[in-house]
Amino acid sequence: MHLRLINPNTSVPMTEQIEVAAWRASAPDIEISAVCPSEGAASIESHTEEILAAAAVVAEIERAQSAGRRIDGFVIACFGDPGLDAAREVASVPVVGIAEAAMHAATLVGRHFGVVTTLPRTLGRAEDLVRRYGFETACVSLRAADVPVLALEDPSSEAVDAIAAEALRAVEEDRADAIVLGCAGMAGLCRTLEARLGVPVLDGVAASVGLVSGLVRMGAGTSKRGEYAYPPRSMPTSAMPRNRVR
Amino acid sequence: MHLRLINPNTSVPMTEQIEVAAWRASAPDIEISAVCPSEGAASIESHTEEILAAAAVVAEIERAQSAGRRIDGFVIACFGDPGLDAAREVASVPVVGIAEAAMHAATLVGRHFGVVTTLPRTLGRAEDLVRRYGFETACVSLRAADVPVLALEDPSSEAVDAIAAEALRAVEEDRADAIVLGCAGMAGLCRTLEARLGVPVLDGVAASVGLVSGLVRMGAGTSKRGEYAYPPRSMPTSAMPRNRVR
Amino acid sequence: MHLRLINPNTSVPMTEQIEVAAWRASAPDIEISAVCPSEGAASIESHTEEILAAAAVVAEIERAQSAGRRIDGFVIACFGDPGLDAAREVASVPVVGIAEAAMHAATLVGRHFGVVTTLPRTLGRAEDLVRRYGFETACVSLRAADVPVLALEDPSSEAVDAIAAEALRAVEEDRADAIVLGCAGMAGLCRTLEARLGVPVLDGVAASVGLVSGLVRMGAGTSKRGEYAYPPRSMPTSAMPRNRVR
Amino acid sequence: MHLRLINPNTSVPMTEQIEVAAWRASAPDIEISAVCPSEGAASIESHTEEILAAAAVVAEIERAQSAGRRIDGFVIACFGDPGLDAAREVASVPVVGIAEAAMHAATLVGRHFGVVTTLPRTLGRAEDLVRRYGFETACVSLRAADVPVLALEDPSSEAVDAIAAEALRAVEEDRADAIVLGCAGMAGLCRTLEARLGVPVLDGVAASVGLVSGLVRMGAGTSKRGEYAYPPRSMPTSAMPRNRVR
Amino acid sequence: MHLRLINPNTSVPMTEQIEVAAWRASAPDIEISAVCPSEGAASIESHTEEILAAAAVVAEIERAQSAGRRIDGFVIACFGDPGLDAAREVASVPVVGIAEAAMHAATLVGRHFGVVTTLPRTLGRAEDLVRRYGFETACVSLRAADVPVLALEDPSSEAVDAIAAEALRAVEEDRADAIVLGCAGMAGLCRTLEARLGVPVLDGVAASVGLVSGLVRMGAGTSKRGEYAYPPRSMPTSAMPRNRVR
Amino acid sequence: MHLRLINPNTSVPMTEQIEVAAWRASAPDIEISAVCPSEGAASIESHTEEILAAAAVVAEIERAQSAGRRIDGFVIACFGDPGLDAAREVASVPVVGIAEAAMHAATLVGRHFGVVTTLPRTLGRAEDLVRRYGFETACVSLRAADVPVLALEDPSSEAVDAIAAEALRAVEEDRADAIVLGCAGMAGLCRTLEARLGVPVLDGVAASVGLVSGLVRMGAGTSKRGEYAYPPRSMPTSAMPRNRVR
């Protein structure tokens, strides 16, 4: 089985990190490839960049489908799940977003989860996703560590401490019994944070591999009746961000 | 007061019709201008096209703001309210979407409203908006007339009958006491449909003029604290669809 | 266009203040008149007084409609929106309440709003209205400044500081990005509070003028099919509080 | 224990019928008295009449409390529960509404209930009450038999058949497994309808006696902290509908 | 009327206390009998013990129904309402749970209630019940005193202080205006806590007597159409916990 | 990885069928074993049998954990997810229910799903699960084929036609774009029904393998802080249904 992860920002180091995180959570018969666009947003930290990210996701799926190689499932590796509905329209195979995946997983290991994101301005998007997926009751805490996405690439930054501090408040003040990491760039922090917090810490990249491969194995594709039928027109090539296949 | 309406599809006739509908619902001291992109989607009938529309909306606001002329408020003249959150980020003046506007207006003239859209595949987006705006209880009916957007430009089409038939079912079967028209292209049908149905029929273009001009008059701009603060980076020009100023 | 605002308490100074606030937010072609009953409750601060207020609202609409002068829309200028459903029954033109109007406006300028009212005992009514209008998710804070309504008429009182303090807690602790003022008597405080808080502050009197004039311009009247059809019997004159036309 | 039932319309036969229905559902140590105003609305079938009814309820409680005789609990014997919040403010003993009572009872004997009311225009009020009491999930059907309230006094009318027909649709089409009768005047129909429908049929008059006497026996009065504290001012006598003690 | 209360844990002192609490809240024509199983869980403080409790409840109802003596209603006297749905299936007379009863009663005496339970691990079950019964809006506080159930039998323990402290936080921080006691073993604390808190304190044992006797007097039995029809097969005797009739 | 599926009814053929369905959806490194109790309920079709099933699930987990063999995750293979909360308490490894799993999967392949169960009396339990998992908006249809569980073992029965008919109504009348099969015994019908219906048909047995193995691979265990901590006392052996290891 071949799964393609799409990081819609242009950070190559983050894309590599995503690929590793996905690979670690994969069954032995799964091949993982991660890609990112070669131009577009360096990180997705505003509603405006979310639009660029959505366009990048759709472009990559269309490009991948017109290339010859078989892909069995797609993952949108950005916590806002940008372009998820459009991706389900254009893809012929299952698509899962990492926010969606982490939240689903969190509800299987505890009653209440908290989300810890990067900048406060992204909390609105997270709240929309929580409602869209049905987890208003399960999600008891939405917190931002006030850390820019790209600071996560710098091991000397104080990002981890800031994230841990908010996660602890989610557990102790808001009664979360599991934590969802609100950025693909946090994938490497699960074990460290679990050790500090004493509750499960869920990364959406790893979670998405389980969800999408599960759909593939059970033969469940996106419903092509109605809303997610192939769109009447493709996205024009001129509107597609260019990508960098890795 | 100068209000700018943005039709994110490329149809010039529809843009002109939108401008007229807005002008008819305006106070005497309001100037209306409507624009559409010169390239992009001919109509917005899929999640994929919704992304193009969102990019077109943001591009037009940024372009308008860097041009010299004063604009007091923006309207997104497409029923999916594409790019509304991003528009509130980038605009310095109030922004309202027509779906939002029509739904707000409908709750002021009745307890329950129904939405009649074009193609069934757009119902999912409408459902998302209903929840986002808080109208799950007020909205008792989401129906599609199964009419493509561009058929609305053709007076000889049977589009009006199809829309009236679904609206009637919303009233009689689903107990709607007002009808929201689910496409900017339906703006001209209000009076005809009201005569047939006996309940108020709300067009978002007219409704949005009242809402956004009201915000301007009371001095209420978008909150720039937190989520809708100006984004850290502008949308790159290369990602902006070109437009056609009218 | 002639809009009639109904203050259902007997305070003439508050009625004059309401008229001014409405006039300031009006288009040039709008005429404003505000009235209050000559007997009834001095202020509306309990559920019991809410009933008197509701009766006063209906009485004034019936009286206005039987008088000869044309009125194009009514506003209920009391934050509990007393008698709103009944007013929609008896009026032939659109009716909007100021709580309703301020909350609608708040959702157009931010994701989350907070309400700051006068006495704590009025919070229950505010909570009912929030749910009735669909804003449970948007409204993240309901706070009382513990200030009686009539203290708002006294410039030397500490009412403004108390209101500002609760509004600040709504912003900082509850994550509101806009504030709704929970009393018609607070209409004059918007600019002062905005300067202190850094977020939009919405007054329902100003907001209601935009909403109801918008409905008039788009030709949208209350649905007279079903619930809001004219009532089978008028309110008996003996049950009507007397009023003072201004 | 002495319970006072307040029928807020002026129908003496209906008041007598309410007294009998309450007495039949009472423990042996309970005395029942029912009253109605001597002037006011003949029946409560509009939002406007609901205001008169609310005033009548508050007036009767204040009158009863200033008379010398001990009363242990009040029942508002009109399905819209008019004035319930105000009644809890002014009363020193527990108050229950019959809509509230019937809905609570219905959730104890089945998962889903349906309400059958009189005129369609009263459905909006019923929907508000369902939400206010928390029964949106439990209540799966709101139907009107299109029967005026006073037709229920006429044994030769076809009212019973019309009510039975809607109740049957609630059971078979909407999956209700219990029926709530939506008018105090239907109190005598329970057994007849149960025999026809095969599911429990709940009358609020009987249900309210159980609820309010239960509160009295367990020593639970209305919380006087906050919202339901005695109001700062009584209702002025001039605003009180006159009553007829029976 | 004969009501049978079922304490599903094996504590005889708690069963006796439950019987007394029920008797105190009963009308003079009601006979009360309380039973508990002779083997099973000493207290119900985990989901695992909840299963044992549910089995004990069903066993006792089946045993009571096959014995000759008439029983008019059952009460499940454990705050998790274990086995309530199954009890409604097997019983021919009404069944009420004490959590359900206390929550219903709380909504009749205030707008917002708080629940104070024993161990924090039981809060999840309480949250499920709140949603099942429709009281998500009414219930504003779920708190645990961190007191084991059996400590409630020891008058020298500090349990009462711990419960009072959490109840006070529910009132002052969470705005509860009534308190629900989250354990049958707390039945004796109502008056003490009310004196300390100044708001109504509701015990489910007393509340359930009012509810179930009210259903009996109004002739309302569990709907036997559909979900609560008698089960196709009885619980096998081998699966029934033995009981101790008192 | 070794996954243990627990069928809580005593049907050996159904247990074998479950094992096969799970094995078919497994990665190559997964070993599957399915067990059922040797005494207990022949099928789970009432709330009373649900209690037996819950006890059987807990007993099997405790038995498996005290036996020497390593198990990496448990699946509760009965659509009511009996005993799921208790199972998370007693298990040291992740536990997933098949209703939960199928519903999660359905939300990944469409916007709206419908559930088709066996007997109508089981719909209440399904509705509870839908709410517990957060899928009230996603689940638009709950239908029963009126087929007893054990009829599914009989290939000559008309069960498949009855299930297909209800599923078709869910798609066409209720707008489901995916179908969830509401019984472990329906696992073999997915492909047949998909061919007839043209939308994805989800079986919980297959879906649960993907979910629970995904949790194992990402190292996510049940949160042992709070609600799902190991229970203070084990289930007494006398309360455990005996089992049959396969």
TrEMBL record, chains A, B, C, D, E, F:
Q: Where is this region: Disordered?
A: 226-246
Molecular-function annotations in GO: amino-acid racemase activity; hydantoin racemase activity
* Designated name of the protein: Hydantoin racemase
> Per its UniProt record, what Gene3D superfamilies does this chain match?
3.40.50.12500
Quote the EC number: 5.1.99.5
What family is this protein classified in?
Belongs to the HyuE racemase family.
- Gene source species: Glycomyces buryatensis
Taxonomic classification: Bacteria, Bacillati, Actinomycetota, Actinomycetes, Glycomycetales
Coiled coil location: none
Q: Which reaction does it catalyse?
A: D-5-benzylhydantoin = L-5-benzylhydantoin; a D-5-monosubstituted hydantoin = a L-5-monosubstituted hydantoin
| Domain of life where this protein originates | Bacteria
